[in-house]
Amino acid sequence: MQLKLSKVSHQYANKFGEVIIPLQDVDLSIDRGEVLTIIGPSGCGKSTLLFILGCLLKPTQGEVVIDSIPTYRLVEDELAELRSRKIGFILQQSVLLPTLTVRENVLLPLWIGPKPFNKKSAEQKVTSLLEESGLLERAKFLPHQLSGGQRRRVAIVRALVHDPELILADEPTAELDDVNRSLISTWLLELADKGKSVVIATHDPFLTGVASRVYTLNKGLLHLKAKPGKSHEALEVLA
Ligand SMILES: Nc1ncnc2c1ncn2[C@@H]1O[C@H](COP(=O)(O)OP(=O)(O)OP(=O)(O)O)[C@@H](O)[C@H]1O
């Protein structure tokens, strides 16, 4: 996916009319196969930026263009369709439905999404994703029967089940041990190798180490921190 933000600003107001401007004139381009990380202090606007990139939030100013389509031209149904076809969200809280098994939680976006799917090939896809993530033996477990790291991996698998072109991850490795952090870093990098675009809000050096570009966000301004590096080499150093 090719994604471009031009002069994007966003402002929130509370009920007393106080205004917060977490993004100011942000320009950003993302291409296929790139891994970008965004770092910055708590409350600086990282999630806001991810929500705008994922078309969950319309910026108050500026333009978001996805595969040559300016998103302001799309109505809400078209945006929902775009999200469910092309975008995978890994949110800060791995919210899994407590009464559904791991397999059912992963299948959920296909059941409720607008995209028709073949039941048999969906089952196969889920099986192979669960296998890749080391979760196949837990396919029939309920979320409360999993460890925190396993729950996070289920949430990631769920974000990938519809084969999105853009993956947006908000602190995907927070509070995980080194094994899980390394596994998730490797996994996100492999997705980029397959041509996916990956944007991650994080402070985790495992993730900033494998990124093609690292940005800092502070006081509304986005700055490039590091020039493109050799991501595989970075991962080997960290392993
Ligand atoms: N719906 C909202 N209404 C008003 N202000 C909001 C709203 N959502 C976020 N904000 C404010 O916008 C700022 C940016 O929030 P955001 O969640 O994007 O930050 P963040 O960098 O992701 O933070 P963290 O790292 O703590 O998750 C914060 O100061 C927050 O209080």
UniProtKB/TrEMBL annotation:
Question: Which species is this record about?
Answer: Desulfosporosinus nitroreducens
The record's Pfam families line, in alphabetical order, gives:
ABC_tran (PF00005)
Where does the record place the ABC transporter domain? 3-239
**Which InterPro entries would you find in this protein's record?**
AAA+_ATPase, ABC_transporter-like_ATP-bd, ABC_transporter-like_CS, ABC_transpr_LolD-like, MacB-like_ATP-bd, P-loop_NTPase
- Could you confirm whether the keyword Acyltransferase appears in this record? no
Q: Name one GO molecular function term.
A: ATP binding
| Keywords linked to the UniProt accession | ATP-binding, Nucleotide-binding, Transport
**Signal peptide span:** none
Annotated protein name in UniProt: ABC transporter ATP-binding protein
